[in-house]
Write a structure and sequence with these properties.
binds magnesium ion, alpha+beta, binds fructose -6-phosphate, 4-stranded antiparallel beta sheet
């Protein structure tokens, strides 16, 4: 069995919240190289999306392994020292705990992990987002695994034809439910359509029960009780054979759908699919970005990455994202550009409401 663990955190931005600094990424590589030499990791690749560092790791210890999580935590705390020395912006921002306590979950960093029997050929895509929230993968996962207009294989490929099982988490109540497509898609969409509360954690092939996809569902604001930056989630998707083809997996992102995030994590904006070279949000700290790195896993080794959105066939999506972004920007502080009030509870909104409390008069 091979485990792929993608663990990510924003530990400091260069400049502001726009990008990751090469010295921090170099520290990440050094740390993971040591872990590989020590035998903890089979292989690794360190990457980034905006101001978040993504540790892409393979090993044989299963998901939620304390040693792997501790090493990732130590990599982020060590990287924070580099960020502090360079006075990068928001050094250590996502590290919400003082000391490691057995599992990185609930400590700030996001994690997307899956364990599986490596197939004769094992293509996977690692998605890395910036300036958006956990839940951003709800619509694309639905499209990849339940929408025949996206994934032709659901109609014409035997191994996909029986559908997929979605494990959906209620991030506020800390409970989960599994629903099957296509039979239960209408029930499922009641929840998936509200990604700020319900997020798809895992997807499985309904015939074989094999894991197909995983996303990080950690919500920083729920952990911290206040706004400390957006979650900037990660996802891993297995492709081909019993799963959607690579081209079906990345097809949903040709539509720059609107997500939560962008400036101060408090706005709606289009999710722009970009190549790594463009993964540094600038305008109004955005718009939100997504990078897709493709790997072939060979005996646990990460053969790649291929920068999947570095493709002119995504140019129109990027152009459309800019148009949607401009349209939304013109709403300024008004909804629906700004998030609805309930979603602003982790910002200055409660303080303002409290300050003005006595000034409201009955009408
Ligand atoms: C969004 C984000 C940025 C910051 C903004 C203000 O996820 O990281 O838009 O929220 O730049 O940052 P602070 O509050 O650190 O000055
Ligand atoms: Mg940041
Ligand atoms: Mg970020």
């Amino acid at each position: 069995m091979v485990t792929i663990s993608v663990i990510k955190a924003d530990i400091g931005g260069w400049v502001g919240h726009s990008a990751s600094h090469p010295e921090v990424l170099a520290f990440g590589k050094e740390s993971l190289e040591k872990a590989k030499q020590s035998g903890l990791l089979t292989d690794y690749h360190v990457s980034y999306s905006g101001d978040d560092m993504f540790l892409i790791m393979t090993h044989d210890r299963g998901t939620e392994n304390a040693d792997v999580h501790k090493m990732a935590w130590d990599t982020f705390t060590g990287g924070t020292e580099v960020a502090k020395r360079l006075k990068l912006y928001g050094a250590g921002q996502d590290l919400l705990a003082d000391a490691f306590s057995g599992n990185i979950r609930g400590m700030g960093p996001g994690a997307a992990e899956m364990e599986f029997e490596e197939r004769p050929s094992e293509p996977v895509i690692v998605f890395m987002a910036d300036k958006t929230s956990a839940g951003a993968f709800n619509m694309p996962f639905y499209k990849m695994f339940a929408d025949p207009f996206t994934t032709a294989g659901l109609v014409i490929a035997e191994p996909l034809h029986n559908g997929f099982v979605f494990e959906i988490h209620d991030v506020k109540e800390h409970k989960k439910i599994t629903l099957k497509s296509p039979e239960e898609i209408y029930d499922m969409l009641v929840f998936l359509g509200s990604p700020q509360r319900y997020t798809v954690k895992h997807v499985f092939n309904a015939n074989t029960n094999e894991i197909a996809a995983v996303s990080s569902t950690e919500k920083l604001s729920l952990i911290a009780g206040r706004y400390v930056g957006k979650d900037d989630p990660a996802a891993v998707v297995r492709c081909q054979g019993n799963f959607p083809a690579v081209g079906e997996v990345i097809e949903p992102f040709a539509f720059p759908f609107v997500v939560e995030g962008w400036m101060r994590g408090s706005h709606h904006g289009p999710l722009m699919p970009v190549a790594l070279k463009d993964a540094h949000p600038a305008r109004f700290d955005g718009p939100p970005r997504l990078v897709a790195l493709g790997f072939q896993i060979a005996n646990g080794m990460l053969v790649g990455p291929r920068d999947m959105f570095d493709d002119p066939s995504y140019d129109d999506a990027r152009k459309q994202a800019n148009q949607i972004g401009e349209y939304l920007r013109r709403h300024g502080p008004f909804e629906p550009h700004r998030l609805p009030l309930e979603e602003m509870e982790y910002t200055t909104m409660p303080t303002v409401a409290k300050k003005l409390d006595g000034r409201w008069e009955a009408v």
